[in-house]
Amino acid sequence: MSELNLDLKRPVVICGPSGCGKSTCIRTLITRYPNSFRYCVSHTTRPRRPDEIHGKDYYFISNEEFDAAVNKDEFIEHVMFSGHYYGTSKSELRKAEMEKRVCLMDIDIQGVEKLQKTSINPICIFIRPRSFAILVSINIKLSVF
């Protein structure tokens, strides 16, 4: 694959715990500035939830498809979280680059650490909940704890 050239449009990574508002922040930026931002849809091996749309929320793929993509070096970063794989494909970054828009990424802290070791030089924004009690409440609802 050819090298990514993202000098002019550095990707923006929105990071934070589940339920802290990352998706709301991304939707707001894309709604207000549709010609400036593009959401980078991640790949995952986890099952699709009833309200999720393949290709919009995630690309839902099998473990075998994920392994094949890793072996072909198709991801800029990939991690395992809660028993499922998640990854950001280089092709998603290229789409934003070709559209001359900033790529918005929603990834966890492991993914951020891996991205910072690459040449794409992302801008990382960490969103935190207003309080620890809210974080615990959200994660209990999501069965994270």
Offer a quick outline of the entry.
The protein is an alpha/beta fold.
Can you tell me about this structure?
This protein is 32% helix and 23% strand. With 145 residues, the chain is of the alpha/beta class. It has a single domain (12-141), classed as P-loop containing nucleotide triphosphate hydrolases (Rossmann fold). A 4-stranded parallel beta sheet has the order 2-7-1-8, with helices on both faces. A 4-stranded mixed beta sheet has the order 4-3-6-5. A hairpin with a 2-residue loop joins β5 and β6 (84-89). The relative contact order is 0.27. The model has no long low-confidence stretch (mean pLDDT 88).
Distance between the termini: 40 Å
Give the SSE order as H and E letters: EHEEEHEEHEHEH
Radius of gyration: 15 Å
User: What kind of sheet is the major sheet?
Assistant: 4 strands, parallel
Question: Briefly, what CATH class?
Answer: Alpha Beta
Q: β content, as a range? A: 15-25%
CATH superfamily: P-loop containing nucleotide triphosphate hydrolases
Low-confidence stretches: none
- Work out the helix count: 5
Shape: globular
Architecture, according to CATH?
A: 3-Layer(aba) Sandwich
How many separate domains?
Answer: 1
Secondary-structure-based class equals alpha/beta
